Structures are given as structure tokens and as C-alpha cells.
Amino acid sequence: MPTTREHMTPLELALSDPARDAELKRCRQLFDEGGVTHVHCQYVSVQGRVLGKVMPVKYFLETAARKGVPFGYAVAGGLQASLAGELLGPGGISTREGLLVPDLATAQILPWDRSVARVFCDHFRSLREEVGPGEPEEADARGNLKRVIAAFREETGLELRTGCEPEMSWFSGPDAIDRSASFFPDWVGPSYHLEHIAEMMPILKRITQYAQQMGFEMIQSDYEDPGQLECNFLYDNALATADRLITYRQICMAVAKEFGVLATFMPKPVPGIMANGCHHHASLWRGDENVFADDDDLTDLGRHALGGLLEHTRGMTAVLASTTNSYARFWDVGLFAPAVTNWGYDNRTTSYRVLPGRVEVRSPDAAVNPYLSHAALLGAMADGIRRNLDPGKPELGNAYAPSDEETPSTFAAPPLTLSEALDALEEDKAVRSVLPGSLYDTFTACKRDECNRRSGAITDWDFNTYLRYTP
Description:
about 475 residues; about 35% helix; 10-stranded mixed beta sheet; globular; Creatine Kinase, Chain A, domain 2; 16 strands
């Protein structure tokens, strides 16, 4: 066993970090004062699904937090099996176990069950492995984002700060997934209508209460379309924002259970109304200075970073819009989903809407894995800065119906199916560089399988179209 830190593996360094004792002491005090009996050790799969292990608080403090939690590598694939019955993820059905190391700084009590706390974890390879013993597990999306952030900072000296706009739909039950929550006829939108939001206020207030108790700085909420709420929280560094988006989804699911309603982050649950997006607002900082844009315009660096986003839009789309259902959002043209790879100043019809101090990346939807989306944004922006890419001229009008005077975008159009998006990702070296090895393999294997299953599914559309199609 190495005795000096310079000879230790990353796993050993993480577990023996001098700051860990103080964090463990904080956790013990938090749990004792809060009456916590159990702890969720959380891990997020490539799909963005929260998995993990639950344990009594005594075992967590005395063993798991000090030695790690055994956890199979294949869990990165969310325990998804292919059509051929193959377990998708590193090692497949023969997977071995690494160790989850609790990130103690993220330990918090769950407001909806104060006897339970949760902590995010990072996945490491076992010290017994022949390949990469004690190294970070490549397929861990959260751990990968940490490494991508560090590499970006090392190369550029910059920090990515983001805020997300998570939209989601709330229905009274599975038989009411439709427009019926609107008081208005189809041709009148309910967006921002206070009487509609008044119907949702008990739910909205409970979300706000729980989020604030978990350290969110909630800033504003609004009603978007029938049953659709958007609740926003203040921007932060990319990892903190990604962690909060995962936590926000858990808050909403807990609130839905308490109110006996159905809540969903499905990107497009109802045709003909706005889909559930999750726009990412991004800016780049050097210390306390925003070097991406000011209140008037983009900086030169900001233009190059935006050029990188435009250049790699096709390659990023599989990550930003990661389900087969995501593409129903893009096909429903004119409902504020991006259809052209372009940008504009405060222009909601573009893919990238430049606002004072930041850019709104409009492709991500409500099902996005935020650890993967932020890694992709960093990879694209880094390439743009590295190559001094030019974003071209802004779109001044309606990108869905450009005038003859408008200069068409020189950037490739976004993919319109998940399969096409996966092909584009495969060809994009910059985006692939931030999704290394088994992380890329696991993500694409799961998503290719999703495409195959969607192709084999028989839906209402099939019956409506083909049941009496011939003769």
C-alpha cells in the first residue's frame, strides 16, 4: 500500500483527502441534528437516471464514506438490455465491481423525508483491476464532467457557468395527457396566464419550498403551455448546475407523489403544444469577470466559443436531445424548438439566442443528462476558442421563415432523428474527445438500442395510418 500521496492512485487520494475528515464531521453533525437514519449514495447513469445504494447512517459514516461502496461498472448503462438480451455497459453481464466514493460536500437531507439524506458519488476502478487500478471509471458521467472541467480550465484558464430552464408537464393522471389543462380554445395560448398558474400554485410552492431547503436560489417560475411549468434557479458553475438539475427532478417527482398527480420530463408528451425543453444558459468566466459577453455584445472570445457551438451542433445533438421522443419536438416546427443551426440577439427562433452576458443553448430538452450536455458544451467551446471559429452573422428575423434578404446559415442543419444524431456524434472528434472510451460506447450502445426498439414499436400512429391502408 503506498505510504506517500505522490504514489497513490486517484481512488486512494480521494479516500485519504485531508479535507475529508472535516466533511465527514459536518455530515455526522448534520445527520445527528436532523435525525437521519438512512443515506442514499447516488450515481447517475448515461440516461440521466438516478441509481445507487441505500444504507443505515451508522454504516455510511463508519464504512462507506471511508472505504467506498462496491458498485458494478455496467450500471453506467442504467441496467438496459439490448434487443439481443445483452446487458449494455462496461463488462456486460460479467461486470466487475468498482467503488463509489461519496462526494461528502454534496450531502443533504431530503425535505420530503427528513429521515433520509443523499450524497452524490464518483465511480472508481477497484485496486484489484489489472487495467487502471484505482483510476476514475471512464463511464461515470459525473466524474467525467469533473475531469472535462479541469482540462478546460487547464487549457483556457476559464470556468463555464450555466443556468438551466427545466420545463416539465403536470397532468391529473395517465388519462389526462392532453390539452385539457388549458382554459382556452386551441388558438389561444395559456403561457404566462396567472389564472392557469394559480391552479398550480400549491405544487409550485411545494417545489420552491423543497428546493430552497436544499440550497437552491429560486428566481422565477411561469406557466408555459397546458400543464407545463418552468421553475428556474440561479446559475452556477457547470457541475453545481448539473447536480441541481438532477436534484430538481427528484424534488418534482416527490411533490407529484404528495399531490397524487402525474409529472413528467418527457420531451414531447402532447403533439401540437410546446415540448419540454431545458435550455442551457452559458457564459465563460476568468475569476470574477465574464469574458464571454457583456451587456452589449459578445467578446471576441465569446464569438469564437459560439462559433464552436455552431460548428459542433450536429455532433452535440445526440447528447442534448438524447431520446427518440426528443425529435418530435424538432419536427413540430414553429413551437420555439430550434430548426436551423444559427444564432441571433434575443431571437427565440434560433438555436443559440445571445442575451446580455450569456448565450441560451436551445437544443437541450427535459430528459437531458446534464453531465453529458455540459461536457459537450465544453468540448465544442474549447474547439471554437482553439481554432478562432467565426459564428457568422446573426439571424435578424424569423428563422422558421427567413426572408429573401436573410443570409442562410453556413452551418450544417441539426439532425432530425436520434439515429442521424448518433451518426453525427460518431464523426465529431471534438465532442467525442469529452466522451471518452467506455462512456461513449455505453451511451451510444444504449441509444442505438433505443432507436431499434422505437423502430420495432407498433403505435397508435401505425394503426391510424395502416389498419385500412389497402386495398
